[in-house]
């Protein structure tokens, strides 16, 4: 999993790429909670996630809980198909509270 941090003024965006699973949950949790130490709002771009399992979704939920408890605005954006599937399986759309915006599919040339 690749975690790319981008700052846009007072806002931070974490772009997640690759597999968001049990093998990467520790690194993801560390990156998210490190970012959550500051009260600045931030987004998590999920468009690059190619695989996600229960451990991955649990880390995202823990980050949401922490942000809510500390009054930090945290938005999940650009949900990839694997992320949307897991959100649907666990019926988490309302709990997460973010608009489910599907990431654009790559253009096919040919």
TrEMBL record:
Pfam families per UniProt: STAS_2
Family annotation (Gene3D superfamilies): STAS domain
Xref: PROSITE patterns: STAS (PS50801)
Entry-linked InterPro entries: MlaB-like_STAS, MlaB_ABC_Transporter, STAS_dom, STAS_dom_sf
Residue intervals of the STAS domain: 14-92
Name of the protein described by the UniProt record: Anti-anti-sigma factor
């Amino acid at each position: 999993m690749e975690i790319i941090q981008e700052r846009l003024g007072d806002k931070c965006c974490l772009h997640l790429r690759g597999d968001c699973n049990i093998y990467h949950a520790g690194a993801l949790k560390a990156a998210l909670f490190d970012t959550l130490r500051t009260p600045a709002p931030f987004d998590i771009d999920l468009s690059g996630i190619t695989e996600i399992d229960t451990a991955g979704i649990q880390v995202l939920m823990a980050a949401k809980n922490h942000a809510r408890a500390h009054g930090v605005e945290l938005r999940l954006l650009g949900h990839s198909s694997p992320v949307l599937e897991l959100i649907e399986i666990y019926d988490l759309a309302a709990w997460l509270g973010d608009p489910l915006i599907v990431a654009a599919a790559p253009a096919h040339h040919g």
